[in-house]
Please model this.
Amino acid sequence: MILEKFSLKDRVGIVTGGGRGLGRSFCLSYAEAGAHVVVAELDTQTGPGTAGEVESLGRKALFVETDVTSKENVFDMVEKTLEAFGRVDFIMNNAGVVSQGAAETVVEEEWQRVIDINLNGVFFCCQAVARPMIEQRSGSIVNIASMSGVIVNYPQTQASYNASKAAVAHLSKSLASEWAQHNIRVNAISPGYMRTDMTAPHIDNPEYGGKWLAATPMGRAGSPEELAPLAIFLASDASSFMTGSEVVIDGGFTIW
Ligand SMILES: NC(=O)c1ccc[n+]([C@@H]2O[C@H](COP(=O)([O-])OP(=O)(O)OC[C@H]3O[C@@H](n4cnc5c(N)ncnc54)[C@H](O)[C@@H]3O)[C@@H](O)[C@H]2O)c1
Model:
């Protein structure tokens, strides 16, 4: 049956930044699709909450306090996953931050913070899961980039974010090229404006949100649940011939 290919029944997946926003939604959707979920999250308030919600859907969950900028933390996250479940079938590299400010005055520490979380963090997570995935000869890696890596957002100024997300998309292709021989697929999702804690204050601010929605053919922001089917598709066997792809899902924003 074709829909069985989308099933994640008894697969083991890690979601970084799973405490809130898109990450929380991915955790719950993966659990609904049958997966056991490791919630890897910096925030010790929200992470355990999501893990509890996964368990209430009848799946196993593990909260691991993780700062994706720490290579040691990230390798420990994978080690704890293997101790608890014996394998890791997919990872959703979702943790990310945005920072706004004019490029000519942005301070080095702020530039570095965004690159450390959004790019270096994704790379460490990919490297850490690739090792057991190479041994088990299977795995799917899904990286959250952004349409901000395709277009330059306006009117806000966020060069570090835009550059980091373009890099995530190209990193995904590079790793897909290296690891196809090990039966590991690596793809990227580039969302447009989605309503989350990160974006809601800006979407509701006419100075920003009004311009964004006017530039979106569908005339609205997306909801986290509208990304979930794509996230399931890319983690599952339904996308078995797909690697190195970047899927833009943006209500048409990048058409104009
Ligand atoms: N919301 C959007 O419109 C949108 C659009 C395109 C891309 N994205 C990307 O989607 C991802 C999720 O965005 P969101 O809107 O849900 O953001 P959010 O701020 O609501 O959630 C981000 C989560 O990541 C966690 N996090 C931050 N730094 C971390 C670190 N160092 N280690 C581990 N976890 C960390 C936070 O604690 C939080 O739970 C980000 O990568 C973002 O860039 C979002």
Q: What stands out?
A: The two ends are 38 Å apart (CA to CA). The mean pLDDT is 98. Residues 16-17, 19-23, 41-43, 46, 66-69, 94-98, 117, 121, 144, 146, 191, 193-194, 196-199 surround nicotinamide-adenine-dinucleotide (CB under 6 Å). The CA atoms of residues 42 and 66 lie 5 Å apart.
